[in-house]
Design goal:
The protein contains seven helices and eleven strands. The chain is of the alpha+beta class. It has one domain: Phosphatase 2c, domain 1 (4-Layer Sandwich), CATH 3.60.40.10. The strands form two sheets. Strands 1-2-11-10-7-8 form a six-stranded antiparallel sheet. Strands 3-4-5-6-9 form a five-stranded antiparallel sheet, with helices on one face. The longest helix has 21 residues. It starts with 14 loop residues before the first strand and ends in a 6-residue tail after the last strand.
C-alpha cells in the first residue's frame, strides 16, 4: 500500500472573486490517497476568472499524467483566449482543441492517453454558469439543503443502472465503472455535455473526481458541503475520502455563491 503524500495539493484559504452581481468564494485541493504512488488528478481554480476544472487521468502511467496536465492547461488557455465571450460555442471549441492536443500528446506513447474533464465557467455578469462534462468526474449543486448531481457519468455503469440492466451495487456495475464511453483523448474525439446552469445566492457547487464521489455516499457529501467555508468543506471532503479507504486520487473544488456587497460611496 502506497502512502506517498508529497504529491497532495494542500487546500489554501478560500478566495473571493466578484463576478457581476455575485461573489464567488472558492477553494480546491487534492490528495494522492492510499492506492496509487502518484497523483494523476489535476485541478484548476483560476486566479482571475470564474473558471474551475478537475481532470482525472485514466490509469497510472505516463498517458494518464500527460492527459490530465495537457487537457487542463489547454482548456484553460482556450477559455481565456475568448474571454469575456463564454458560452456553448466557445466551450465546445475549447474542448475540441483539448481533444486534439491530448491525442497529439499521446501519439508517441504505447498505452492509453486519456482523462476526464469537468469544468464550470461563469459568465462575466454572473447571470449564468456553464458546465462542461466528459467522463465520470462530477458536478454537484447544494441548494436549500438538497444535493443534486447535475452531470451524467459517461460510463457503461451509468447506462446499466439507469436502464435497469443491473443493481448499482452489483459486480456488473462495479466492472462497468471502468468502461468510459466519452473522455478526453478518445479516438473519436466525442463532444462534451455543455449545460447552462443558473447561479443563485446560497448555492454551493462541488466539482470532484471519482476518488471523492465513489468513496462518499450521498448523505455524507451533503453534510460535508453544508460547511459554509469552502476551504474547510474541501479539507473535510478529502479527509473523509481517505478515512473511507482512499482507494483513488481524490480532488475537490468547492464554490459558494454569495451576493455582491455594494461598495460604499
Amino acid at each position: 500500500m502506497f502512502r506517498r503524500r508529497s504529491l497532495d495539493r494542500p487546500v489554501e484559504a478560500a478566495r473571493r472573486l466578484t463576478v457581476g452581481r455575485l461573489t464567488l468564494e472558492m477553494a480546491g485541493g487534492s490528495v494522492v490517497g492510499h492506492h496509487y504512488p502518484e497523483n494523476f488528478d489535476v485541478l484548476h481554480v483560476d486566479p482571475e476568472l470564474p473558471l474551475f476544472a478537475v481532470a482525472d487521468g485514466m490509469g497510472d502511467g505516463d498517458g494518464s499524467r500527460i492527459a490530465g496536465a495537457t487537457a487542463t492547461s489547454t482548456f484553460v488557455e482556450r477559455v481565456r483566449a475568448t474571454w469575456p465571450a463564454v458560452g456553448a460555442r466557445e466551450l465546445r471549441a475549447a474542448t475540441a482543441e483539448t481533444q486534439l492536443r491530448v491525442r497529439q500528446a499521446g501519439a508517441g506513447l504505447a498505452g492509453l492517453t486519456g482523462c476526464t474533464l469537468t469544468a464550470l465557467a461563469v459568465e462575466p455578469d454572473g447571470g449564468q454558469g456553464w458546465l462542461v462534462q466528459l467522463g465520470d468526474s462530477r458536478a454537484y449543486r447544494l441548494r436549500d439543503g438538497l444535493l443534486e448531481l447535475v452531470t451524467v457519468d459517461h460510463t457503461m455503469a451509468w447506462l446499466g443502472v439507469v436502464h435497469g440492466w443491473w443493481p448499482a451495487t452489483s459486480p456488473e456495475a462495479a466492472r462497468a465503472r471502468y468502461q468510459l464511453l466519452r473522455y478526453v483523448g478518445h479516438p473519436d474525439r466525442p463532444e462534451p455535455d455543455v449545460l447552462a446552469v443558473p447561479l443563485r445566492t446560497g448555492d454551493t457547487w462541488l466539482l470532484c473526481t471519482d476518488g471523492v464521489s465513489d468513496q462518499l455516499g450521498y448523505h455524507r457529501l451533503r453534510d460535508l458541503l453544508a460547511e459554509r467555508d469552502p476551504a474547510r468543506a474541501t479539507r473535510a471532503l478529502l479527509s473523509a475520502s481517505l478515512e473511507e479507504g482512499g482507494d483513488d486520487n481524490a480532488t475537490a473544488v468547492v464554490v459558494r455563491v454569495l451576493p455582491t456587497v455594494p461598495t460604499p460611496r
